[in-house]
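Checked the freezer inventory, then went back to the computational side. Two predictions to log before the end of the day. The first one is the construct we discussed on Monday; recording sequence and tokens without edits.
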Amino acid sequence: MQIFRTLLFVPAIRERMLVGAPKSGADAIVIDLEDAVPDGEKAAARAMAQRHIARIAEAGSAVYVRINGIHSGIARDDVMAVVGPALAGVVLPKTDSPQDLRDLDVLLREAEMAAGVRPGDIATIPLIESAGAVLRCEQIAAASDRVAALSFGAEDYTFDLGIRRSGNAAGLQHARSTLVHVATAMQVASIDTPYADYKDAKGLAGETAIARDLGMKGKYVIHPDQVATVNATFTPSKEEVAYARLVIEAYQRGLANGLGAVNLDGRMVDAPIAERARAVVALSAAIASTKKRAKAKR
């Protein structure tokens, strides 16, 4: 199970941040070649990313790179520079249509062949950042077998709609819900937009809880200080895991006695509730396993 609770954006031109990124505790590091890099620094950023991808991966973090958009004219340069055995995947900004992912797939196959990577190994995470992308979200998710997650970018989305990004996030609910439903149906993860004010811990916690309750599986973060809050929100608590185990045990006892539903502390437990409990236990185990592997590599 790929864990995507936190994906930390790190500018590709900030070497100090790249060096420290694996210590953040984020499930994935996203080296950013797009918005965080001025046009005149793109070539230097590619070279910097190239130098650090394997080192970050060796430290136990999954490494993704946000390339420039498929219509930027420099996406191929980005892909050819960063694809290698240590790269987990590519985040594609401004994914507006399924053709964008098909075009990226062509570039990735070329880069994989050149780098000696098995074709298809590099995953993709499209960023849904416009009204049109939300409208075509299902087609985008189905456009490539490489898609590991769908992710949401609220800043470009709210600009496209001509609305302000407010504290209650009301203007984002439709896009978030659409993305979650499509991702769930396609059996991939759903990743929420970053919270821009990295000093506002309370606001971050509130927005992350909204995303979790809508069904999101994780969130982009822009500062290491945001990682612990987001990880905690998307991690089942010890109490939740303990109760989930009780639910599973009660349901199994019921089945052994020929019952399809049982009473546990005044609550009915049937097949869907037991299945949800199994998912909680599996997620907790996957997170623990990921932590253990990362710790072993450090």
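The second is the one RB wanted added to the comparison set:
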Amino acid sequence: EILAQAQQQPEKPSEVKSAAVEVLRSISKKVEGFTSGVMEFAGGINQLPQVLSWGADQFRSPEARAIWVEILVKISMVLALGYVAFFVGRWLLRRPRRAIAEQPPANYLIRVLRLLAMALLDLLPVGVFALTTYLTLGLVEPREKTRLVALAWMNAFIIVQILGTLFNFFFAPAAPVLRLLPNTDETSHYFQIWSVRLSRTAVYGYFALQAALLLGLPKAPYEILLRILGLVVAVLCIVLVRQNRTTVSDFLAGREVEKGKRMVPQGLVHRFASIWHLVAIPYVLVFYGVWALQVEGGFLFMLRGTALSLLAVLLGVAALHLINAYLSRGFKVKEDLRGRFPGLEDRANRYLSTLGCWFMGWCPWPSSRPGGLTAWPGSPASRGGC
């Protein structure tokens, strides 16, 4: 920012100096806000014993005990009827759902439409659950706090089911013939297991803390418990990254993966394959830190920086493709000369592989294709030359 403003107005050094001062002040404010967030977070940990004190007070107070008894009785009644309605609705819809899942689609559009139909059938029991619980909640007429706690649990269940429906639409673990992505049954069920773990941990944990706050949990312990919940979710995401480190690395590196699928990566992607997890894990930690410390504009800064970085990489890869295409044609020796002098092209392009392989992501050695050059140094056609 300082250099940009200096280039716009080089004749006014005083304004350039003031711009530099403003940027430094902005950085100082962000550092100060970050430091205060860290101190507030650390200071709040000392208030965690208030949670135990609050729990003990709930059992000592007759009014609090009455509220908890009402919560256990009335919420159990509401949720029991809702779950019965949900599972009965799912049982009644199991046959039409199975018929949609097992019939092979004629084309891609039919596949998407059938997945949408399955999603609708999955959401119908959720709607029945919501209708039943809301009607039952109106009939039992609980006090305000009990009603809010019941709504928190009901909303958590509905959100988890909707997230599960979205996952089933994209991965279809129980409908292989309709699956949009070329995953095996094991991988689809693996991601289903992890989607359930993450969604239930995050959603139920968040609404449980909201319910505790409604019941009188002090604000400071609530904030600390909320950040601990976020840390648990971040750790689960890191575990997920570590578990899939080799699989993703093999896919990016172009090795054989599920169903014998292979991809042909460029040099940048091929190099990124071995270190992608070293980028993903810090990203998870940074995003958690931005959220936990409530850094002002932190998410916008991270998303903007990520988008611009990806754009720069894509533009760079496109430029390398253009350079590769130009050099593939410009450095190619004519057919008649190759026929008359078999070693001429090898001699004329000697040592260019070093420049291409390490700096440009291409290899100027003859490939197995007639008159073609390899696209990246690790491809099967170039392993002999580079």
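For RB: Residues 257-265, 364-386 have pLDDT under 50 and may be disordered. The two ends are 42 Å apart (CA to CA). Let me know if you want it refolded.
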